[in-house]
Amino acid sequence: MNPERSIGNKYGIDLPNSIPVIPSWRLRDRMKTAGIGLIMALNVGTDPPDIIKPYPCAKLQCWMDPLSVSRAKAKEKIGDRLEKQYSKFLQQSQRGGTLDPTVEDVRGLCLWLRKQARTERILLHYNGHGVPRPTPNGEIWVFDKNHTEYIPLSVSDLRQWVGKPTIVILDCSSADDDDPIITNMDTAASYWVKDTIVLCPTSEGEWLPMNPEYPADIFTSCLTTPIPIALRWFIRQNSISMSNLQIDPDFNVDSIPGQPNDRKTPLGELNWIFTSVTDSIAWNVLPKPLFQRLFRQDLLVASMFRNFLLADRILRSLNCTPQSYPPLPEGVADHPLWLAWDLACETCLFNLIQDGILGDNKDVSSPFFSEQLTAFEVWLEYAAIHKGNANHLQPPEQLPVVLQVLLSQVHRVRALELLKRFLELGPWAVNLALSLGIFPYVIKLLQSAEYKTVLVNIWSSILKFDPSCQVDLVKDKSLVHFIQPLTQWAKQSGGGGGSSNNTNIVEAAKQRTLIAFCLAATCHKYPNAQSECLRQNLHGSCAELASNDASRFQLLSPIAREWICMCIGNLVRSFHLGQTQAYNTNVHLCLIALQQDDDNANVRAAATYALSNLLRRGFSPSFSGQQPQQQPRRRPTVYEDRRRIEFDLKVIESMIKVLADGSPMVRYEVIMGLSNFVEKYLQAILVVAEDATRVVDVIERLGNIQEEQHGDDNYNNESNTAHSIESRKRVVSLPRGVNQMNMERFEKCWKALRAIQHDDPHPNVSEAANVIVRVVHETFYDMRMEEEAKIRDMTKSDHGLSGIQEEGEVGGGGEGIDRVKSVSNISMGSPDFKRNVNIFSPKTMPRSDGPSHRLPKTNLYPLRRSSSEAGGGNFPSSNVGDETRNIPAMPDRNLIDRVKAENLLPKSEFYKWKKSIFRPDYDDVDLEDRDDRDPLNPLGAARNYQNRRNKIVRREGLNIAHHFQILRNAGGVKMTSMLKFHSYENALVVCDNEDFVSIWDYENGVRKSSFKNGNPTGSRMTTAFWINESSTSLLFVGCDDGSARIWNGIVENNGQISGQAPTLASSFFAIPDMEPGQRSSSGLICEWQQTTGTLISGGNSRHLRCWDMTAEKCSTSIDIDTNSCITALTTAWDEDEAYSAVHNSNGFRGTGPEIIVAGLSDGTLKLFDIRTPKTGATFNEHGSWIVDVSFSSFGSSGGSQNEILSGSVAGDIRAWDIRSSSRSSLRAIEVQRSPMTALSVHKKIPIAATGSHAQFIKILTLEGETLQVARFHENSLPGHRIGPVSCLEFHKHKLVLAAGSTNALVSIYQPRRP
């Protein structure tokens, strides 16, 4: 097992680049059939003149022999039977009919039905068995009043009478002749489906079947009584298999026990299977939009088309070609699922006959549904193998069957489990299931407690795909089924779960995560859901779950804590009452604790997201406005709610502390919180920004006067100018009700924002802060311009105006400001006026110190008042810069409208990002770890390569002999201050003394890539090392301003050195209090422990900080108790020990990872134990700057890594035993007389290399024996002296030395081969 703790790229916030699946499952317009009209042209006893019927011939109409009674009674009974058959599909509808009708009878029936149905659909059934077949001109036949002649009826007239929408059933020969006239084929598909639907048994020129084994109205029988005709046809088609059952083909289906609508009986189950099969066939052959309209829009239309599929199969076997509009695709009659229906029929009949219960009301179940679920499960196993490309799979044929199975309690649990697995395949699967009609079932089943566990998974997939389902949850009052489990679990005692199964505990924790996700998705930007969740105390339950003091909280995984925080955030987002309740129940304290103390960066970011939503400007429900003429009552401003201000300031101050967090994701969310804070308290922030600008104005104005004026009146001019600037009226007045103490706290927030704008090492974080500052400065600048316009307009209109003052209105949420709109006794020609104009000129515009371009003025002011409203026209060109021309005044513009009108302030996308990557089927094992175990997966293949590579390199490193030959030069590279070999690839990192980094293939002498680290001008890089060398390699670079950056993409997973510029994986301040640019200081010095994932950072600071890089937070801070800076750090980490079967597997020998040795600039060595804040032993024999310090595996302590080696600038190397109480060195080696500028000790063999500015490199043993001194280049520049040595680096597993100097060369030394 690989003991390495991988520190990967977890910091990107880019959304997936896949093409999104747009929800298209909702029906925009539902419809119902409100009336049924029957036109029965039977003429019982008289055959039509255009046909000669054979004998015997089909004669049954509605399953009765019309010749068994008189002609008058026969047609009445047939009409009653047909009406009764239709009533099974639609009981509450207007039904009417006419027997052997005339034209007027048909007209009256159609007009009456349309009047009753209004805009709903009408079904018109025409039976033309007693009249000639339709004419090619589109005419059907009816009778005259005396029933002696056939009268043609134009289908166009019929269509005009019946109106739209309509479903027309033509049960007659050659019925397709009338189809084009009825449907009007030139209309679009979406229109004609809604307009007219036509079902016909025959095509043009075909006659109805006359087989005496079937009814004469076989088409009507298929549409209205599908089970009897289907069983009769099946028995006759399978006479051989049915012969053993000795069953009469003409048996009455009523002898099958049960009712068609009772699924627990054989007849009901058979009808249920028929519905499932026909739905599945339609689902697989029809386009999905057409399926939705035909099978999900209208119950009667769905039944008719479902039965029409059966009619198509039966009539084609009788040499007829049924037609429909819209037409069905080819192959419906031969679909493979019909075989499943045949098997179900055969099984049902066989079981009934075998058990001798045909006619008894007993339960005989069919294996159809269990078999179909098994087939669906097999498809899911296949889809799981191709999950990465699942959206290209064909939809499963059995999906409609799963929907039908949800109606049965016997198979419901299994069906829900399979449905859950199907929805986990991705958005395309969710869209398919919803299009099929799964939604009403899953929302109704929420009321059953036994299914809630699996339903939570299903609903998480649905809400992730289509957030609009939140409306349905609230409307159906189903939120209680999600909130109740959280509430119950929050109220449970923390110690009651000791005897529970660990699997149940993990599953319960996962359920809370999914519930929190569902609630967060429901509350997101939906006030009704927020109000309902607030009423049911969701915030209180989440606060209890998110409390670090509750022992049950430890059962929750980080992702559960993360989504609970986001649930709180979405609950209070822009919801004033929710924010108030959250503050009253101390929810913010729980979130602050998570934000500062949680070990997971995602949880801290989620807590920050929730806190930032607490700071969002909350809106209460607006009144209906019964009296629009009445003057609205003034609402209090946010500054008058002092308790709320105190809460908000406490939250924002806690967020400012998190700006030192190691995760840029957390810091970015803090900036989003500051953005919400600035938006809410814009007036106070503008006051702070104006004060800062006034100070800059005074300094710049006094500096300009000192340069421009020289004379006796210099002092007076300075005093007058300073006085005029300080005493001028404020552009932004102090908010009403805010005291000076609070203003100081607002100023603190503004300063923190400006500091992040300039100093944060991650560009996304600093740019977000820069946008906020620019918006504030732009708003203030435009207010200045408006004020200047007012002064000029009022002075131009009346030079004698005095003492006029106006106040801005309080608008919107109460964010109005009071601004002075005039000056007193100032004329355009007076010096005072000119001085004031100069103060407002663009030269004194506040600066954001970000990008030089301003925000577009049109975006800031989408709508402006006309200049006439301000009492003046455009600005004159004199005394005003070009930027102030043609700017109309805006005296009553609300500040929030200024900024929010174009959404200039950045807003958090944290929830959107997290939702996009959330998987309802998540587990505690990371996806990459699962992929690593699969050798066929690209990540697994890369991991196998890395493991093989690592073993080979380590074996070679362990086999290096203790002797070596003379070193030779192998080439040079650019000037550098740091070098770092990759342990397993031929990659060498070369850093200069500013911010340029190069990646070299040192075996071939080729530079593969280069990039700029991005540290501020004047700072320099002071530490660099590799992270995750044995797997996905990252490069850590630290600078003397305390910032650290982690770069990804330098070495690819297949071992190739990338030629592309790397990407920034993360950045943070390892030492926040460090001052850059001090050449006499060490800058940032770091030590990396790969096994524990710990970063130890020190340097030009009084603190030694230990960072948990997995959690991205500082775990320990130790005061080093000295004013000297740390120049070198080391621990007893040995990577090979982690893979050695002889020693412990933790990577340390003798000394554990908690012991840190630091070398200082005053020559002392100090031991620190990160488990305690106290300083350990001190070794102080060195008298100058410690160049390097490292643990030795070759000393007198037998390789137990209790011996350390240190070298100083004075040129001496000393060995120490950290266990010794004498605090004296074991041995001292005087290496050189000139200052030692570089030192490197090999990890595998007992040699060291030292460098000097005197232009030589010395190779020596750890006992002090000099092996070789290199003074000249050999191959590339023979005879040339090497430059002053700035750094040295031994390869960890190879006998290779890299040396950097100040003369623009880097040399690679390796043993001379004989």
TrEMBL record:
<feature type="region of interest" description="Disordered">
    <location>
        <begin position="834"/>
        <end position="891"/>
    </location>
</feature>
<dbReference type="InterPro" id="IPR029347">
    <property type="entry name" value="Raptor_N"/>
</dbReference>
<dbReference type="GO" id="GO:0030674">
    <property type="term" value="F:protein-macromolecule adaptor activity"/>
</dbReference>
<feature type="domain" description="Raptor N-terminal CASPase-like">
    <location>
        <begin position="30"/>
        <end position="186"/>
    </location>
</feature>
<keyword id="KW-0853">WD repeat</keyword>
<dbReference type="GO" id="GO:0005737">
    <property type="term" value="C:cytoplasm"/>
</dbReference>
<dbReference type="GO" id="GO:0030307">
    <property type="term" value="P:positive regulation of cell growth"/>
</dbReference>
<dbReference type="InterPro" id="IPR015943">
    <property type="entry name" value="WD40/YVTN_repeat-like_dom_sf"/>
</dbReference>
<dbReference type="InterPro" id="IPR016024">
    <property type="entry name" value="ARM-type_fold"/>
</dbReference>
<keyword id="KW-0677">Repeat</keyword>
<dbReference type="GO" id="GO:0009267">
    <property type="term" value="P:cellular response to starvation"/>
</dbReference>
<dbReference type="InterPro" id="IPR001680">
    <property type="entry name" value="WD40_rpt"/>
</dbReference>
<feature type="region of interest" description="Disordered">
    <location>
        <begin position="794"/>
        <end position="817"/>
    </location>
</feature>
<dbReference type="InterPro" id="IPR004083">
    <property type="entry name" value="Raptor"/>
</dbReference>
<dbReference type="GO" id="GO:0031929">
    <property type="term" value="P:TOR signaling"/>
</dbReference>
<dbReference type="Pfam" id="PF14538">
    <property type="entry name" value="Raptor_N"/>
</dbReference>
<dbReference type="InterPro" id="IPR036322">
    <property type="entry name" value="WD40_repeat_dom_sf"/>
</dbReference>
<dbReference type="GO" id="GO:0010506">
    <property type="term" value="P:regulation of autophagy"/>
</dbReference>
<protein>
    <submittedName>
        <fullName>WD40 repeat-like protein</fullName>
    </submittedName>
</protein>
<dbReference type="GO" id="GO:0031931">
    <property type="term" value="C:TORC1 complex"/>
</dbReference>
<dbReference type="GO" id="GO:0071230">
    <property type="term" value="P:cellular response to amino acid stimulus"/>
</dbReference>
<comment type="similarity">
    <text>Belongs to the WD repeat RAPTOR family.</text>
</comment>
<dbReference type="InterPro" id="IPR011989">
    <property type="entry name" value="ARM-like"/>
</dbReference>
<feature type="region of interest" description="Disordered">
    <location>
        <begin position="620"/>
        <end position="639"/>
    </location>
</feature>
